[in-house]
Amino acid sequence: MTQVFDRPIRGREFFEEVIRDNLDQGRPDRVQPLFEWKVTKRTPGRFQTRVIQNGVHPSLHITYKKSDVKLELNTEATLATIEKFKPNAVVVATGAQRWIPDIPGMEAPHVLHAEDVISGAKTTGERVVIVGGNQIGCETAWLLGEQKKKVTIIGKYAAIGMDINPATMSYLSMKLREFGVNIVTESYPKTVSKDGITIFNKDWKEQKIEADTIVIATGYRSNFEFAESIKKIVSKVFTVGDCLEPASILEAVHRGSKLGRLIEELA
To answer: Any idea what DSSP says for residue 186?
Structure first.
């Protein structure tokens, strides 16, 4: 598989995280990518290309030509269908659910979720307030800044991007300054109105910020209720990915790999 990055920073970010998340595989003296193998029309196997675009977190994809994994497509995972397979163990990867702050006005049509904005499913107005200053909020601000939107980030901590590695955050901060993104820290949303949002600022005073669109980037909450119900019929139940704890795709792949080896040892 070939990965194409739209910026040098994306390539560096990708390799840094792959090395970091695989340190438990050993500590080699030298790590380097090898590009000597050439793929031609006569090369057997399946090959894919994926373009990493703006606002997309680098990810590692591996495509296997052959696998013993049996796929049950168009089948809902219920207690009845799981019990039918008589499994020795069940791995639950039901992901996470969007977490939306419980404040007045969140049901308004001009309130969007960052996931929909990044994917292109929804478009924003010219003035945008992003509620949430972690990775998804920062990446959404970058995307909208490139679109020449007037963007404000509201974060509850003293700094934004606290879940982003320092090297990446340094570059991201530079881009946000370049796009003129306004950053309001140590603040909390109070109410959403048709022409903006009212917040409690760091002095606990109300402050109105005018906006055409409010983008919610407050993260996700684990969806583990189904995993708990499976324990009634299967003794070994494992959770992985956002079902265990919302994180990045690389962390999910890393944890999944470790869990796979653990299950193999238990078999």
So the answer is: S
For 2-29, what is the HEC assignment? EEEECCHHHHHHHHHHHHHCCHHHCCCC
pTM higher than the cut 0.70: no
What's the CA gap between 124 and 212, in Å, rounded? Answer: 8
pLDDT digits (tens, 9 = 90+) for 233-257: 998 999 888 888 777 777 777 888 8
Q: Burial level of 181, CB count in 10 A (0-12/13-18/19+)? A: buried
Count CA atoms within 13 Å of residue 1 on its CB side: 13
- Write phi, then psi, for 81 (nearest 5 degrees): -70, -35
What residue ranges define each of the domains in the chain, with the CATH number in brackets?
1-66 (no CATH), 100-218 (3.50.50.60)
Tens of pLDDT, residues 1-27: 456 666 666 666 776 666 665 555 544
Per-residue pLDDT tens digits for 196-223: 999 999 999 999 999 999 999 998 888 7
Q: What is the DSSP letter of 105?
A: T
Closest among 100, 120, 108, 91 to 217, alpha carbons compared: 100
